[in-house]
Design goal:
Strand content of chain B: under 5%
Helix content of chain B: 55-70%
Order of helices and strands of chain A: H
Structural class of chain A: mainly alpha
Keywords (chain B): Cytoplasm, Cytoplasmic vesicle, GTPase activation, Lysosome, Membrane
GO molecular function (chain B): GTPase activator activity
Largest sheet of chain A: none
CATH architecture of chain B: Orthogonal Bundle
Number of helices of chain A: 1
Number of strands of chain B: 0
Oligomer: heterotrimer
Protein name (chain B): TBC1 domain family member 7
Shape of chain A: rod-shaped
Shape of chain B: globular
Number of helices of chain B: 16
Radius of gyration of chain B: 20 Å
Largest interface: A-C, 28 and 27 residues
Radius of gyration of chain A: 23 Å
CATH class of chain B: Mainly Alpha
Distance between the termini of chain A: 76 Å
Strand content of chain A: under 5%
Order of helices and strands of chain B: HHHHHHHHHHHHHHHH
CATH topology of chain B: Cyclin A, domain 1
Pfam families (chain B): RabGAP-TBC
GO biological process, one term (chain B): negative regulation of TOR signaling
Chain lengths: 52, 294, 52
């Protein structure tokens, strides 16, 4: 019976952890995207300054 | 008794109209009342019998680990699964990978890629490669079987992952296995396929990587996937054997490997239920019927 | 003892939950930032087109 309780808890924890891990992957993807956008923005701004 | 044609006719008939299924359905219902669920017994059931359609999605979710064995955790875990899918798809929308009119199958692919750290940068988006195409084919078929988008995503993801992990090493050997069983069932057909050069260019990717997604209509396909999800990739070989046997006359008249490939890749959608039934019988004949429990 | 195991399982699940919530706040903040960046980029691009 004790094993049963443990197994159940493990099942729930695994699902919860998988949800957490997905958030972490989302964070990474967002950061990559943001980084790219910032560098694009900088290029655009410097070229705008140069042409002004 | 199994050789009694009268009986075979009857049981085939009952299976078709759904009477024989009553007993099976009852025994599945008993299994589904267990708490925790006995995943082993559910696998055995699913290997032996077709899953009643009203329980199919639920059993698949348990077999694939989308739902844990403990039924009283199902509500909580289902909520986690919904949130996880919504979190990721929301982020993909924010990143403009997907938008309101993106086909669901493409959304599923992107969610899957993000979760497995394979999402390309948005500036480096490329057309789907072979593996993406396999995923999309399975996704399109799953979409026909499953109504709920969250369930659909999870089933595709876990189906694809389980298939890769469990059977990844066996897949390259399936064409040889097909050759072996075809030699047992119809040596003449095998010889013809060999001499015409068609044997090496059968649609193996469609059969053994996409598990017949896009080849068989969903009503037949799901009966094959019952077996794959509950632990057999050998069934794929027997479906392929039965397809070849069913179109023997046509195939014997074809000598161009490309013609054979094209015909089998766009196979007629008639009689596929019979093909699958025969394939399951053949699979039981060669590989035995799992006997324990149920 | 059983109560003990249950309490421990509950504690672990809660910890996982709060980690998830924290990560979720991070991704929401990043998404807001992303949205702002997109609109800044669009403004710059349209003004660059206008001045060209």
């Amino acid at each position: 019976f004790l094993e049963d309780v443990k197994a159940q808890a493990k099942g729930e924890l695994q699902a919860s952890e998988s949800r957490y891990q997905a958030q972490r992957r989302v964070t990474l993807a967002l950061q990559t995207e943001l980084l790219q956008l910032y560098s694009r923005l900088e290029t655009e701004e410097s070229s705008a300054t140069a042409s002004a | 008794m199994a050789d009694d044609p009268q009986r075979n006719f009857r049981s085939a008939y009952y299976e078709k109209v759904g009477f024989r299924g009553v007993e099976e359905k009852k025994s599945l219902e008993i299994l589904l009342k267990d708490n925790p669920l006995d995943v082993e017994k559910l696998s055995t059931f699913s290997q032996r019998f077709p899953l009643p359609s009203m329980y199919r999605i639920h059993v698949w979710k348990v077999l694939l680990g989308i739902l844990p064995p403990h039924s009283d955790s199902h509500a909580l875990v289902s909520r986690y699964r919904v949130e996880q899918f919504e979190d990721v798809s929301g982020a993909l929308t924010a990143m403009r990978f997907v938008h309101a009119s993106t086909p669901p199958t493409e959304l599923y692919l992107r969610v899957y890629q993000l979760e497995s750290r394979q999402l390309p940068r948005r500036s480096e988006l490329r057309p789907p490669d072979a593996e993406d195409e396999n995923f999309l084919a399975i996704a399109r078929a799953m979409e026909e079987i499953v109504d709920d988008p969250v369930d659909c995503y999870w089933l595709i993801r876990c189906f694809v992952n389980q298939f890769k992990h469990k059977f990844g090493d066996s897949i390259p050997h399936l064409p040889k296995s097909l050759e072996h069983f075809l030699s047992q069932e119809d040596a003449a057909l095998l010889a013809h396929l060999k001499t015409s050069g068609a044997l090496n260019s059968l649609p193996y990717c469609l059969w053994f990587r996409r598990c017949f997604a896009g080849c068989l209509p969903e009503s037949s396909l799901q009966r094959v996937w019952d077996k794959v999800i509950s632990g057999s990739c050998k069934i794929l070989v027997f479906v392929a054997v039965e397809i070849l046997l069913s179109y023997k006359i046509m195939l014997m008249g074809m000598s161009d490997p490309d013609g054979v490939y094209n015909f089998l890749s766009n196979m007629p959608q008639e009689n596929t239920d019979a093909i699958v039934s025969k394939a399951i019988d053949l699979w039981h004949k060669y590989c035995g019927t799992p006997m324990h429990s149920v």
